Amino acid sequence: MINHRKIDTVCLLVLAAMLLLTLFFINGEALGLKNHTANPPYAARLFDDSAVHHIDIQMEPDAWASMLGNALEEEYAPCTAVIDGEIFENVAIRPKGNNSKNLIHRYGSSRYSLKLEFDSYIGSRTYYGLEKLSLNASFQDNAYMKEFMTYDMMRHIGVPSPLCAYVWVTVNGEPWGLFVAAEEIGNAFLRRNFGGRGKLYKPDYKRREDENSDVALIYTGEDFESYDNIFRNAKGRISRLDKRRLIEALRILSTGENLERAVDVSEVLRYFAVQAFVVNADSYLGPTGHNYFLYEESGVLSMLPWDYNLAYGTYPLGMPEPFGDAETFINFPIDTPYSGSVMLRRPMFHNLMLNQAYFEQYREYFDRFIRNYFESGYFEEKHAKTLELIAPYVKRDPTRFCGYGDFLLAADTFREFCLLRAQSVRGQLEGTIPSTIKGQQADKSAFIGAPHIKIEDLGALEDME
């Protein structure tokens, strides 16, 4: 029989081992060890962006036609999704989108963006760890590159961003078109980027004509109802404690002091550097104030990128005078990326920029982004490889929104826009080009010229009425 002293020794050794294992898993990331979910299986499969993947949507023809005919209802229907030859039965599918969906319907097209959910009908089933997948139709993106390249920019600067890749979609074996597959920002995204921790929201308004202060992240008091556009759009269950924690973060943000307590300053500044570069007025830095995800962990907020089909100056509605042409957007100011009346209602940007140290940090991130992404030659190589990859598919895309020649023109215009935009930002950082709206209205003499570029060639927004 083992005596009590030996039992105590064994127990202490087991306890010590458990403590070491706990410390290992808690501090593994600090030691340079990646969380095992940092590279889930789906990342190396569908989101290997070196190839065009294939998804065949299998449905009864009448069911497919009915879903498209009632696209505005966004009702799910069952389908079989064959992804790169692997069969996934009972997958939920529906059309998706906001303004784009309504405009596609109005224009008489049936090429809607689509959402696939692998866990709707079979609760625990995923695509190699991914519950939801978007197939974006590249509406008003004649180059098929706005979202694909913007997410690449965000990842390059270190902002957690959706994985994406190109997918050739067929329906019952018949060609439907080239789409951009994007990882939905949800549970799988949280596991991949944050170890499954934290809370996720997609602030958005019910009615655009309302004030929507909560979507703008403006603190308006302690009443939960004042933040309905945030809490109503939570991705997952949230408690009263979760709500109080987020409201407290907004309160701190509103003061402009001790912002590190409420904001992941480094991440948010990097996010805004790319946001300002891509001139996306249909975003937090524009009159709509939406199209972003909000992540909260331990009372600290960060912003995550989403929806760029109207970036690169192709959402000109409400732009402050005299803005409007390609030269305007190529030289768009990086320090005041919209009019003062809007920026005063964007505390996540405005209150950070009021802090001189953060303002300088923002410009340092911008400098690093321009140097590493554009001036290094990385962008041109990435663009060339992407164009070579997708061009054969666009050429035979039966539902595309533009002609093949329009696609080639848009791809070239996109390349030129980005390279000239990088030159302008370099000038703004060095002080040779004004970096504010007021400064640019007073002096355009050093603007980077672009008489050969037409923004509408990218697939600009024509009608929002």
Description:
It contains 16 helices and ten strands. Helix 9 packs across helix 13 (356-375), helix 13 (356-375) packs across helix 15 (404-430) and helix 14 (378-395) runs antiparallel to helix 15. By secondary structure, the protein is of the alpha+beta class. The chain has a domain at 41-188. The longest helix is centred in the C-terminal third of the chain and has 27 residues, at 404-430. The strands form two sheets. The chain has a seven-stranded mixed barrel. A hairpin with a 2-residue loop joins strand 6 and strand 7 (174-183). It is globular and about 60 Å long.
Q: Helix and strand layout, with pairings?
A:
Blueprint: H1 4-27, H2 41-44, E1 53-58, H3 61-69, E2 77-83, E3 86-96, H4 99-106, E4 113-117, E5 132-136, H5 146-157, E6 164-171, E7 174-183, H6 187-194, E8 199-201, H7 228-231, H8 240-255, H9 265-277, E9 292-297, E10 300-305, H10 326-330, H11 340-343, H12 347-353, H13 356-375, H14 378-395, H15 404-430, H16 437-442
Parallel strand pairs: 1-6
Antiparallel strand pairs: 1-2, 2-3, 3-4, 4-5, 5-7, 6-7, 8-9, 9-10
Helix pairs in contact: 9-13, 13-15, 14-15
The side-by-side strand order for the widest beta sheet comes to 1-2-3-4-5-7-6
Structural class: alpha+beta
The total of beta strands comes to 10
Radius of gyration: 24 Å
The percent range for helix content is 25-40%
User: Biggest β-sheet, characterized?
Assistant: 7 strands, mixed, barrel
What is the general shape?
Answer: globular
The N- to C-terminal Cα distance equals 86 Å
Which spans of ≥5 residues are poorly predicted at pLDDT below 50?
10-37
Number of helices: 16
Oligomer: single chain
Q: What fraction of residues sit in β-strands?
A: 5-15%
Series of H and E elements? HHEHEEHEEHEEHEHHHEEHHHHHHH
Average of the residue pLDDT scores? 90
